[in-house]
Design a protein that fits this description.
This protein is mostly helical. The longest helix has about 35 residues, at about 40-70. It has helices spanning about 5-10, 15, 20-30, 40-70, 80-100. Helix 3 (about 20-30) packs antiparallel against helix 4. The chain is rod-shaped. The model has no long low-confidence stretch (mean pLDDT about 75).
Length: about 100
C-alpha cells in the first residue's frame, strides 16, 4: 500500500479537520522528506474536494434540522415579526389620529 495512503488512514478524522492550507503544508513536508509525488498531491486534492463536498452536505442537513426544530418550537419568524410591526404601526397611527380629534 502506498505510504501516503497508510499515513492518511492512520490520520483518520484528524486529517478531515485540517484546512486545505494544512493539507498542502502536510504535502510540502512530504516533498521535503522525499516522500511526496504528483500522484500523492492528486490524492490529497481529491480528499480536500471530498471534504468540501461533505461539509456543504452537512451544512444543508444541519440547516434543515434547525428549521425543523425551530418550527416545532413554534417561534415567531422574521416575517411574523414584520407583520406585527406593521400592525403595531397602523394601530399607533390610529391612536394618534383619535387623540388629535379630541
Amino acid at each position: 500500500m502506498n505510504e501516503l495512503a497508510k499515513k492518511l488512514i492512520f490520520a483518520g478524522l484528524g486529517l478531515a479537520t485540517l484546512t486545505e492550507e494544512k493539507v498542502k503544508e502536510f504535502y510540502d513536508s512530504l516533498v521535503k522528506k522525499g516522500e511526496g509525488s504528483a500522484k500523492d498531491y492528486k490524492l490529497l486534492q481529491e480528499i480536500i474536494d471530498g471534504l468540501e463536498n461533505n461539509t456543504k452536505e452537512l451544512e444543508d442537513v444541519m440547516e434543515r434540522m434547525i428549521k425543523t426544530v425551530l418550527n416545532k418550537m413554534n417561534l415567531a419568524s422574521k416575517d411574523d415579526l414584520k407583520k406585527l410591526e406593521a400592525k403595531l404601526a397602523e394601530l399607533e397611527a390610529k391612536i394618534e389620529f383619535l387623540q388629535k380629534e379630541k
